[in-house]
């Protein structure tokens, strides 16, 4: 899998790939592309910051961040080094280490163990200390799909209020682990005041 390619090429190619860390392996069923400094919805849009420094490291770096002060979300850095581009891992199906994932999310149905980026981070037991790690080193693995996904679907990204209409979320149709689409509350506020902003 060539992670140096453009993020819009890498993102759908990750569907069906396996991520393995901390005793759990996921088959990726949903991802979201962020085009670095060229994308106003990306963490890297404003350039290098201490908090986002791992986004500017070479392709194949794991970038983790905390969402809503609670959840750890995981991204695969891709594209040319320094571009800040990354693919958010939105959802997956647990294919190995089910007992570990269940213990990390007790009482949750198996199909929902890694449904949504925060749940995915929890199922994989990721922390901010994992940010900056390289895939292929130290037990963090990204294994390409055995076969390219036969069918994929794309649509607008979840929860962003700028560049919100870009169809840069990709998922495997019919997968119960795929998360539900929700527009950003901020986008709804803008739309109600100004009409459709055609963001993106």
Question: Could you characterize the architecture of this molecule?
Answer:
- The chain is α+β, with helices and mostly antiparallel strands and 200 residues long.
- It contains four helices and eight strands; from the N terminus they run H-E-E-E-E-E-H-H-E-E-E-H.
- It has helices at 7-13, 98-104, 117-123, 185-194; strands at residues 18-21, 24-35, 62-67, 71-77, 85-96, 141-143, 153-155, 169-171.
- Strands 1, 2, 3, 4, 5, 6, 7 and 8 form an eight-stranded antiparallel β-sheet that branches.
- The two termini are 28 Å apart.
**Distance separating the two termini:** 28 Å
Q: Tell me the β content.
A: 25-35%
What's the SSE pattern?
Answer: HEEEEEHHEEEH
Unreliable stretches: 188-200
Structural class, by secondary structure, is: alpha+beta
Subunit arrangement of the protein? single chain
- Kindly report the average pLDDT value: 90
From the alpha carbons, calculate the radius of gyration and give it in angstroms: 16 Å
Q: Helicity, in percent?
A: 10-25%
Number of strands: 8
């Amino acid at each position: 899998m060539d992670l140096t390619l453009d993020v819009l090429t890498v993102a759908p190619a990750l569907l069906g790939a396996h991520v393995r860390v901390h005793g759990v392996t996921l088959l990726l069923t949903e991802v979201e592309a962020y085009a670095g400094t060229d994308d106003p919805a990306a963490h890297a849009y404003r350039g290098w910051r201490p908090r986002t420094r791992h986004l500017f490291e070479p392709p194949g770096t794991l970038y983790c961040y905390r969402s809503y002060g609670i959840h750890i979300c995981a991204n695969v850095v891709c594209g040319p080094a320094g571009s800040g581009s990354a693919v958010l891992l939105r959802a997956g199906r647990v294919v190995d280490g089910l007992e570990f994932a269940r213990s990390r999310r007790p009482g949750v149905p198996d199909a929902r163990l890694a449904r949504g980026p925060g749940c995915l981070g929890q199922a994989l037991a990721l922390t901010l200390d994992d940010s900056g790690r390289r895939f292929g080193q130290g037990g963090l693995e990204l294994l390409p799909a055995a076969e390219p996904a036969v069918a994929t679907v794309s649509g607008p990204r979840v929860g962003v209020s700028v560049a919100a209409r870009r169809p840069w979320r990709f998922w495997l149709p019919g997968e119960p682990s795929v998360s539900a689409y929700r527009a950003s509350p901020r986008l709804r506020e803008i739309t109600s005041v100004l009409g459709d902003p055609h963001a993106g």
